Description:
Layout: H1 8-15, E1 18-23, H2 36-52, H3 55-73, E2 79-85, E3 97-103, E4 114-120, H4 130-146, E5 153-159, E6 163-170, E7 173-182, H5 186-198
Parallel strand pairs: 1-7, 4-5
Antiparallel strand pairs: 2-3, 3-4, 5-6, 6-7
Helix pairs in contact: 2-3
Amino acid sequence: MSYSDFTIETLKEQFEIEMIEDCDLFSQTSTMAVPKLLAELLQRYVPLAITVSTEKARSEWIIAPILAEFKLQFKDQTSLFSGIEFNVNKNKGLNGRCDYIISKTKEQLTLSAPVLVMVEAKNDKITGGIAQCIAEMIAARIFNEQKHQDIEAIYGVVTTGSLWRFLKLVNNTAYVDIIEYPLQQLDKILGIFTEIVTT
């Protein structure tokens, strides 16, 4: 078993997760100006990514440029990992490759203090990635506990590149934002990332 094998039901049974699906996590969050270079890159790449319409294309031409630019903006506060093995507890199925992890430390050579995990939605279905994302968030919480990192909330996001939906895990309660943010609200998406890594 790995992260992608989890369902909401197995998360509830195995980790006693309580789901709250009707919350508004970030509507009051401030926006962040989109860097000019990123806006220009996306203006060129997004039409191609949407036309090709594969998970890999969206990852490379939409998601990765956004995360890389965010990392550069906060290089002294965050590290960014892409496609790394994150094997926390194989016996519990908390193992496998994570699409992206943002950590609340500038150390880039090794992962420490993960604060946000990101899952690329399969077949453009956001809801299909929620269970996997929560499983990775649970793993991040356990990882932090093992490393004696005091991080109260772990965040997650499931994205198609065009749509972004955020989650929050506190203790055994998983909050799923009722709002899906479109790429046209990139300033809001960047604002949410900023709030997560700076609070």
